[in-house]
Amino acid sequence: MESVFKVGDRVFHIQYGWGEIIEEINCYDNLKIAFDKKVESWDWFDKSYISFTEYTLQGFTQERPIELPQAGELCLVRDDESIHWRVREFEFENAGMFYVKSLCGSTDGYDYMKRIKILD
Question: Which of 21, 25, 64, 111 is deepest in the core (most CB within 10 A)?
Fold first, then answer.
């Protein structure tokens, strides 16, 4: 199968930006690219990361993920920002819902959760 990429093409890589293809190895599906910005070493790049247009990674975030308590650890939960926090034993998290052991022993889901920091 003939490659869509050719030596001399201008291409984009998410990590290194724009560059020009200087060599192609079809049996490995790899390209050697001279990037506009200086790159430490000449690496071979898998064609699946190369594009003729600039692209971004949707869903990329640098927001730190919430540190979940261990199962059985106490936490604060509530369904709405206007109601009081309740102390419950953490069970698990699924799709943004925090599941805790209720007072009667069943499992309840809540929208908001805070860890309780125990001071020694």
Answer: 21
